[in-house]
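sry for the spam today, last one i promise. struct tokens for design, 172 residues
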């Protein structure tokens, strides 16, 4: 069993026939807090003839964090860590896109959730995660909700202690 609170990561992305790139990412920290950002796309991800709604692109460019800042934050927050994902999305490819665009090495190792919780198979874990998201009223397309559901699942599996009831802050 890992020591401390496991790290989780979830990435949302845009995909059509012409394009495939990350649009938002969330990850958990060692103390259980989360960070989430909208990602400013790299120009190399956006060929001139690709179809993407102008309002979506404008939102990503205006609200998105530059890739170099995102890469630095991930290097600071997750150095040499095992980071768990739900295993449903092409997370490894998306992480490689981010770090390749800024010519930096990925500072962490991605692993599927079933590596952390080997007693349940992938389908059972996904069903349980989906049930938690429904019970909590979480929108599945938001990466912070995906990370939150993974934290809740880890807590239910006994990998994380629940925060003290009198410890009133932003911790879940």
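last one done:
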């Amino acid at each position: 069993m890992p020591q401390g609170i496991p790290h989780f990561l979830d990435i949302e992305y845009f995909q059509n026939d012409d394009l495939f790139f990350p649009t938002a990412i969330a990850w958990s920290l060692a103390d259980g807090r989360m960070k989430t950002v909208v990602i400013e796309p790299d120009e190399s991800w956006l060929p001139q003839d690709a179809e993407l709604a102008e309002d979506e692109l404008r939102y990503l460019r205006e609200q998105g964090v530059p890739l170099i800042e995102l890469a630095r934050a991930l290097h600071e927050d997750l150095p040499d860590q095992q980071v768990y994902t739900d295993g449903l999305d092409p997370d490894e490819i998306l992480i490689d896109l981010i770090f390749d665009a800024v010519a930096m090495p990925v500072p962490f190792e991605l692993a599927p959730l079933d590596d952390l919780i080997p007693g349940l198979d992938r389908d059972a874990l996904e069903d349980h995660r989906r049930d938690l998201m429904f019970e909590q009223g979480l929108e599945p397309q938001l990466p912070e909700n995906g990370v939150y559901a993974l934290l809740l699942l880890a807590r239910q599996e006994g990998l994380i202690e629940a925060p003290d009831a009198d410890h009133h802050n932003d911790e879940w």
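Strands lie at 7-15, 20-28, 34-38, 82-85, 109-112. ok im logging off now
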